[in-house]
């Protein structure tokens, strides 16, 4: 491929991804009426109309003004859509753009962005190399699409979003419940993935002791056993902060579960249905995940353990982009991109397994790790401190792997998400791990 050809291909790809991503944002904001768009469905979330105009405002700031060097479209509204100025709970009271104005605004910005994309070099400075700024803004919109979906899940009312259920897990397969990852060094993070965000960089060697990790995320059936064994009433399984939160928030089961007529039901995007036993549990907070793990005689994996399980190839010693290799995700690898509106049953996606056979690390549910959000050795904020650096703190816990609601561009083996340990409106689940006993995990590396 000549350079001119590959530059052209990159521009075409960026344009296609911008269109594809905006179609999803449109579905999520056109599914409800104007009243629903401006209303706050939960104090944890913004009104959907805020997310929409905020998507356009970030795009304007970075691509129209910074990369494109163009005049502002609307410099008067920057302050309204600055996430650091107004907490989510206060956003409905702001003089926000209305639904029609917000739609016109994002489309005016987008027209200018296509014009900028036509003329700007996609190399020569870090913000432009490989189209990074466009990749960053695409991922930003996709992240807000996932946030808007969490708002839809909290919204009360008749269902407005529809999608086919994921296919059942392949019949007749067998796999061990947990997998041994031998001790040894691996490469964590990346210095080469073109659209990786600052907190994923740089690549660095990490020594990891041998450990066992669950082959799949923890299922609803397994989690219900914890609930029914009285797990929410037994302080032994909870950390001090976890127990205090359990009591104060009155937690009894995952968010959206109710027990009725001898079985568990859940509300999913406005529809009430039995909790499917084989699906990964979701809408649990870090404290619940921690308590379940302790009850099960396990613990949460560290972030390094999770990434080693997901990326390390023992045959070559290198780290892959994804568990299955370096190829971009397809529907055979993982449940991503809001193709379905729920996780796939545990044991799905054998083609997406890691070299050692760990499944469903990418997609389905975000997985809580035991690790606080921090910068890797050699971290440098890029292109702005407010994406990651200002959140580096042990009070934010790292989640990995993306959910069924995460776009394939906004998720990879190195991608890091974070949230407070009490949050569970996100599509969060987990898997458990335990130390290898001496002798089990030795000799695999070093
Ligand atoms: C990476 C998901 C924690 O939603 O707060 C969106 C992504 N940053 N706009 C968030 C983000 C700025 C971020 N998370
Ligand atoms: Fe944002």
Task: Give a concise summary.
It is built from nine helices and twelve strands. The chain has helices spanning 3-30, 34-38, 48-67, 99-119, 132-154, 220-228, 240-249, 286-295, 303-311, and strands at residues 178-181, 184-188, 204-208, 211-214, 257-260, 263-268, 271-274, 366-373, 393-400, 416-419, 428-429, 433-435. The strands form four sheets. A four-stranded mixed beta sheet has the order 10-9-8-11. Strands 1-4-12 form a three-stranded antiparallel beta sheet, covered by helices on one side.
- Major β-sheet annotation: 4 strands, mixed
Our estimate of the beta-strand percent is 5-15%
Q: In order across it, which strands form the biggest sheet? A: 10-9-8-11
End-to-end gap: 39 Å
Low-confidence stretches: none
User: What do the pLDDT scores average to?
Assistant: 96
What does the model show?
Helices cover 30% and strands 13% of the residues. With 446 residues, it is α+β, with helices and mostly antiparallel strands. Strands 10-9-8-11 form a four-stranded mixed β-sheet. Strand 5 and strand 6 form a beta hairpin. Helix 1 (3-30) packs parallel to helix 5 (132-154) and helix 3 (48-67) runs antiparallel to helix 5 (132-154). The site of N,N,N-trimethyl-histidine (AVJ) has 6 residues, from helix 5 and strand 10. N,N,N-trimethyl-histidine is lined by residues 140, 143, 147, 387, 417-418.
